[in-house]
Amino acid sequence: MRPALSLILGLLLTVALAACGSDDSSDSESASSGSETVSLEECTPDQLDTLEPDTLTVATDSPAFPPYFEDDDPTNGKGFESAVAYAIADQLGFSDDQVEWVVEPFNSSYAPGPKDFDFDVNQISITEKRAEQVDFSTPYYTANQAVVALKDSSAADAESISDLAGAVIGVQIGTTSLEAVESVIQPDEDPQIFDTSNDVVSALKNGSVEAVVVDVPTAFYLTAVQVPEASVVGQFEAPGGDQFGALLAKDSSLTPCVSAAIEELDSSGELAEIEKQWLSEATNAPVLE
Amino acid sequence: MSEGSDPASEAARRRLERAAARRRNDRRGFAIAATSTLVVLGGLAALVLTSSGWPDVQDSFFNPGDFAAVFPEILEAFWLDIKIFMVVEVAVLALGLLVALVRVTRGPALFPVRLLATVYTDVFRGIPTILLIYLVGFGVPALTPGADPDNFLISGVFLGSVALMLSYGAYVSEVYRAGVQSVERGQHEAALSVGLTQRQALRHVIVPQGVRRVGPPLLNDFIALQKDVALLSILGVVEAFRFAQIEASTNFIYTPLVAAAMLYLLITIPLARLLDHYDRRSGEGGRTR
Question: Is B146–A202 a contact, with Cβ atoms under 8 angstroms apart?
């Protein structure tokens, strides 16, 4: 049976390779986020091809953290992203009780195949590479990165980016913070990468890392609530700017409408109001050069 | 001179016939195996490749360009997996044997040590490995809040390896114990009757035979251990799986994870073949004494 076995293995390999190497159909369209414009008149609940008729299904991860959500409850309209989601729904003509929330972990939000939400708000940064796999709405927030360190650590006294080069830094996976750390701070030691922001906080608390890098609003929540013994050392701009957008299925018919809603909120000043209400502290951190 | 009546050539002819029949049988078996393999794999491939979502899945999971881009870096990260695996494996072998020996002692004075060993195997076999890694990795550094984060003893690599060792040591000690206890009583009595002490009997007669018998189950545990190194990623250790995850979540593609899966297979498949080889040998030749 030896030769048979090798033949079977060979066949397996051939099939596998054939599967990988067939038509190279990565349709390299450019990021089609909000490229087509529609007016909000064309975006009403009866015209929109939503998941459930007359319902807007919005997703976020669980647990949902302040200042983006309050009390781990997206449905209460409190917290920046919850408020933005309800404002978008309002622009599209959905009442508050026509909005359904579902849990979508970040790591499965970009899986190919049908989505079980209309759009997902989860502090997801827009990048060109990502936009090849999913649709992004117009950005609704531009986030700076912040460095958080225990008050009694050497990193807490840093006054410039270069003061942080010697620190052991923790970040959460899937965030632009990692890229920001590697390209801006360029620490001597590789950063440690954790699954959840809770694990990042634990590592900071128990001293496995000296400093963590998160987006500015999260940093203020961390130091106010989760790790009062830590402080925000300062903020810096992520390379290329870090913008959050709503995530939708690739080529979703809803993308232009969600973008139009956000643009309307932006130009009417409502978005700035929401930001001021929930993220007011975000401007208070010293800027690290 | 009639030929064929000579018994020697008669036997030779029969031998040749038998060999030919065996070859025919082999050939037929081979043909059947090849055909059924083709049919099954062809069917599966057709099913997958003609499904409507295949182009998306291929672009996301089996993208040759993405694969080529990340593979070298994942391979580099995989080196850490291999190093951890090697060290933990040796530690597990030693710890497992020690615990097993303690458990097969009979002296009444050693009762507390036996109790300790029994409690250890019960507890550490009963806790999910990932949970153990989490508790050790986040718990131990919390004991030393002032420690330097650069200290290897509180690094994720070290603590995660310790947790893996504790978990697998418990399994492997049971494997050893089964092996030692499977050695016939007569061996023990014979050893004592030629004037060996209890300890010498254990060391020169019982343990060597017992350990030789448990090769396959030990190998089996090592295959599992090799895969579980990926669990260290929850402590912020950037090994192959975590590296692939970072790449995946940065660009919303899954190809890096497929690449990492291939690397794990590269190690486990040879081990599995070796295991089969062992099984076959002991099946045909009986136990090697």
Answer: no
CA distances from A70 to A56, A62, A67 (A): 20, 12, 7
Residues A70, A78: contact at Cβ < 8 Å?
yes
- Mean pLDDT over residues A162-177, rounded? 88
The whole-number pLDDT of residue B173 equals 95
Q: What is the pTM for the complete model shown?
A: 0.75
Structure tokens at B147: 């420690």
Whether residue B77 contacts residue B226, with contact meaning beta carbons closer than 8 Å, is answered with no
B212-238: average pLDDT:
90
- The residue ranges of DSSP E strands in A144-272, in sequence order, are 145-150, 169-172, 192-194, 211-215, 230-236, 242-244, 247-248
Residue A202 CB-density burial (10 A; 0-12 exposed, 13-18 middle, 19+ buried) = buried
Residue of B nearest to A177 (CA): B250
Contact A172, A197 (CB under 8 A): yes
Convert the pLDDT of each residue in A125-142 to its tens digit.
Answer: 999 999 999 999 999 999
Interchain proximity A192–B63, CB inside 8 Å = no
Give percent of chain B above pLDDT 70. 96
Crossing angle (nearest 10°) for helices B156-181 and B64-104: 50
